[in-house]
Amino acid sequence: MPPVTRDSRDSRPSTIAIKTRDPSGYTTARLIVMPPGGAEKNHVLGVTHVRIGAGSSNDVVLEDPHASRFHCELRKTDEGWLLRDLGSLNGTRVGDVAIKEGLLHAGATITVGETKIRFLADDGRTDEIAVSPRHSFGDVVGRSVRMREVFGVLERIAATDLTVLIGGETGSGKDVIARAIHKSSPRVKGPFVVFDCAAVAPNLIESELFGHVKGAFTGADNNREGAFERAHNGTLFLDEIGELSLELQPKLLRALEQRRVKAVGGQKEIPVDVRIIAATHRNLEQKVKEGEFRQDLFFRLSVVTVQVPALRHRAEDLPLLVETMLVSLGRPVGISPETMTILERYDWPGNVRELKNVIESAAAVCDSEQIEPRHLMFFKPRRRDPTMEKLPLAGKTLESIERNAIQQTLEQCGGNKTKAAKQLGISPSTLYEKVKKYKL
Hints:
22 strands, single chain, 13 helices, disordered N terminus, alpha/beta, 6-stranded antiparallel β-sheet, 20% strand
């Protein structure tokens, strides 16, 4: 199945249909685009949001002077595919009827400018991504079916320029997967630039992303390239994208769509050629529903979504992970069955990162050919906190629950707001606002 393609180098493939064993998967649809006087083009829709128009950043680009830059869009809903006009100059018609918004039926013909688009629901062929026979992808290892399903997707999309959104719990290895994608791509000789959206002060994020010119603000003593410019001809990894403030999301969206950035205080736009990989431990779809993350940015980032399973959900990978970690340490030691049993009984809330720390510390003090239980002197399995279902929350207001959670976390962290924000799973700037709100 060929992805949607465009003519210019700046126009990247932007959709791919992927079907795994996820029960929430959906059937694809197909568009047959019939431009005036041109050859038909067949587009299989593999994402739930597709924009159509004359602009090069659309998913389906029309070579039609009568089509608006962003003319209309298709969205997959529970009821079916929804067509919505985006305020186009000449309007969008289905048959002979001009529409603003409506559900499409199979076989419907959409008119955009002078272009006819035939919509064939449930007629597109979903590409089956087979479980990979390999036990690794780059530096990522795993024998479990869940990880080999992930490898199957990565093997398919690594060589493309498709934008990838990696989800998963903290410590599950999202950054390692991002690097592995870069190393397996044609951009391997280009830079791999990491931008942690949660680690930069809110007032500096724009400068760090897009750069600044000398004198743009107090302390800007020199011109500075931003992450986009540094990643030119390579890959930009946007870690913890869910922490990006709403105020900056439109500017990031514009940069992703136009592949041009303007430095803070600058006058000219700079073209950039980057592949975007983003990662988050948040549920971005939920954040969209709550109004904390822009829907259009979410769709632009989630062209391909990869969900990394937590370590407790792939316990069969533990022996291979431990072996790989010991090899990387250069320590000629093994691990005893008793020690492995201890490791397998733990649920690893810190995921692979926590396991790595345990193995490194045990290997450092190991005085025999195998890591024995006595070498796990720094491994103190933590008892998991009671689930929210078991806490007496009924009858309390959401504000009181939130206030108490913040207050108790701050006390536990000795007043360290950065550490408390990390434990609460929110950005430091959000925590500052809530501390002020609740007068803590």
